[in-house]
Amino acid sequence: MEKKFKRTTITSALPYANGPVHIGHLAGVYVPADIYARYLRLKKEEVVFIGGSDEHGVPITIRAKKEGVTPQDIVDRYHYLIKDSFEKFGISFDIYSRTTSQTHKELASQIFRTIYDKSGFIEQTSEQYYDEEAHQFLADRYITGECPHCHSEGAYGDQCEKCGTSLSPTDLINPKSTISGTAPVMKETKHWYLPLDQHEAWLRQWILEEHKEWRPNVYGQCKSWLDMGLQPRAVSRDLDWGIPVPVEGADGKVLYVWFDAPIGYISNTKELFPDSWEKWWKDPKSRLVHFIGKDNIVFHCIVFPAMLKAEGSYILPDNVPGNEFLNLEGDKISTSRNWAVWLHEYLEDFPGKQDVLRYVLTANAPETKDNDFTWKDFQARNNNELVAVYGNFVNRALVLTNKYFDGKVPNAGALTDYDKETLKEFADVKTEVEKLLNIFKFRDAQKEAMNLARIGNKYLADTEPWKLAKTDMERVGTILNISLQLVANLAIAFEPFLPFSSQKLRDMLNMSSFEWTQLGQTDLLSAGHQLNKAELLFEKLEDDVIEAQVQKLLDTKKANEEANYKANPIRENIDFEDFTKLDIRVGTVLECQKVPKADKLLQFKIDDGLETRTIVSGIAKHYQPEELVGKQVCFIANLAPRKLKGIVSEGMILSAENSDGSLAVVMPQKEVKPGSEVK
């Protein structure tokens, strides 16, 4: 039975205030959330759209230390840059606030304390690295050392960026504090944990049985986590930047950023509606919808609901339409490599063309799988769809009306069978677009809306009113009346998707009021209604403009390659005898699987010619396990065994690293006998 709700609370993932936002963020989260919010407002539904910046956590402290400024300086800089970018792209938040606000600090502390007083956390004491010179415990990223896997220097306490292996700080050889440069010591520290394992039974029922309508990528990731078994998760950490843990004996400890950040949705709502915020978060008749990227699915579907359930008075999300990732020109978007299209730069390079990007990102939305943005596709969709279909139809209808009827909507005379057929074609558009928007299929909904323009273009091309003007002006009036009704429908249908263009089109139509219920009607503009001056809705993008953007990316790639070469120069010469100490062989992959709770590790069973050996390799981000089964790989056979995530690894698979950080496993060109030596 379908649930009936009085209102909808829409949230979009809080961008991390550690840098600007790029097209991947826009495509994955903010444009779809904005489309949905605008759609519900057009339907006159009660809705609030909440956004804000995530401003706590270790990366911000690291950036501040590197730049010699305070963490507050960092978050202030990027909060306002991000907020400005969103405003200029028409992301229609009802509020865009931040997690450093006083309202947020108070509410996050209150929620923690409520759960704490209900014995909803468990306390655990463990040993962690401590910098005696700096007098502080060290987050994983504040510890570096030699990677135990590939033996490169500078590996972090959570990951070796050279070989991609997930690490714990205690795995590092000769660890050092990045703060003082001294060797840290192990020291006991107490933390609080959310016992997710105690919530597993109801989460399994709530997600797997009660929310089978969720997107398959969201549902599948949740099922995978639940099937692996949930574990307690720390909600506090030793840090001086964040919200202090509000209990006695917690000096020097703050709320872990993953715990504090989602509460920002609630605190921002409270900031917007100080006296009525609870109805959006505690009334069972309120619907909660989270828009996120796939890296946040677990937090919003498992962790945050467990927090809300433990607190006891909040509603749980009704849907979490999480998107996959958007790639750029075939490569993964990377902020560290500057491989991105930054929103603030796009606004400078393409003034007034926010809707073009909104359209292309929605057309290529990574709704259930990763998708790719290319500048050539951007140009093609602008020129062949927005200009040649949508803009062309609008311009012809308005220009012809101005030419033959002084810019006034003509009367519609008797309808031909073809007129009736055309009207029938677009009469059901509202139902179809609405159906798709209701199930978060924004890409298909936009495509359906564009079909209105295609119908209009074909109608004008087939009826040729410019020829009839010589003999039958009454018929011309009918054709243009029908065309203008279609144009008015386009202004409504595209309002959620292309708000700037819809506003411009309504101005041209002199159409002040509009709402969703009018979509599909054929009397939106009355006869005699005066239109305003027609302008081009979209402009063609020339090759040189696009080539400049492609060149910018090529320059970035070249700079990355040069930087990578400088950072990884050819090492000092070694003696031949040193090389011969390495026993490199070819093995056949018999089995390959992901290592549970380690998203970068794959576990191999390899036929090495004599027996079967196990090797753990940090390449899960670059290969699916099934891709490698049956393949032959090169591996170091005489590397001392060591444990990774409790698995004894008996060797190391060789990979080549591209300048973008992607890895390619080294394989022989021709099949050889397992155990063959590489010389």
Question: What would your notes on this structure say?
Answer:
With 679 residues, the chain is an alpha+beta fold. It has four domains: 7-120 and 256-328, 3-Layer(aba) Sandwich (Rossmann fold), CATH 3.40.50.620; 122-192, Methionyl-trna Synthetase, domain 2 (Beta Complex); 375-518, Isoleucyl-tRNA Synthetase, Domain 1; 576-665, Nucleic acid-binding proteins (OB fold (Dihydrolipoamide Acetyltransferase, E2P)), CATH 2.40.50. Helices cover 42% and strands 18% of the residues. The protein contains 21 helices and 26 strands. The strands form eight sheets. It has a five-stranded parallel beta sheet with strand order 3-2-1-13-14, sandwiched between helices. A five-stranded antiparallel beta sheet has the order 20-19-18-21-24. A four-stranded antiparallel beta sheet has the order 5-4-9-10, with no helix packed on it. Strand 22 (642-644) and strand 23 (647-649) form a beta hairpin. Helix 4 packs across helix 7 (257-272) and helix 17 (473-493) runs antiparallel to helix 18. The mean pLDDT is 93.
CATH superfamily of the largest domain: HUPs
Tally the helices: 21
Assign the CATH class of the largest domain. Alpha Beta
Per CATH, the architecture of the largest domain is 3-Layer(aba) Sandwich
